[in-house]
Amino acid sequence: MRTEALYLDDILDAADAIARFLRDIEKETFLSDDLCQSAVLQKLTFVDALITQEYNEVMITTITHKNMITVPAEIAQQYGIKPGYRLEWIAVDREQILVRVIPHRRELSRRLLGKGRALSPERDAVAELVEERAREG
């Protein structure tokens, strides 16, 4: 069982990391730097999890000799990770890596289905394309 002192150490480490990320960086630079924003957000999310006591167990995986890992089932379920999804690895610093889930192309397509209608509800892009092909053809 983790002690309160360990939780506090983790919070202080995260605060120190945020201070390092933001050292000598102007506001405009920060606002235009997605990597720095992601790193700070990751640390703040980590601190939030500690404070709300959602961070109750560390999950450790082992890298095989072929640099392969297994995503813990709890993490896969929580983030909806399925076969075919990809993981983007972003080096935050020498000790931390941010992992972003990239859904399979089919899932991305499904999520985009119908999104264009909100941009131009009066248009029927499919009908326009059919008409254009008929004129060409």
Write up what this structure looks like.
The chain is mainly α and 137 residues long. It has 7 helices and 2 strands; from the N terminus they run H-H-H-H-E-E-H-H-H. It has helices at 4-22, 27-32, 34-51, 73-79, 105-112, 116-119, 125-136; strands at 86-91, 97-102. It has a two-stranded antiparallel sheet with strand order 1-2. Helix 1 (4-22) packs antiparallel against helix 3 (34-51). The protein is elongated. The N and C termini lie far apart (72 Å). The mean pLDDT is 84.
Short description:
The chain is 54% helix and 9% strand. The protein contains seven helices and two strands.
Number of helices: 7
Residue fraction in strands:
5-15%
Gap from first CA to last CA? 72 Å
SSE string, helices as H and strands as E:
HHHHEEHHH
Strand order of the largest sheet: 1-2
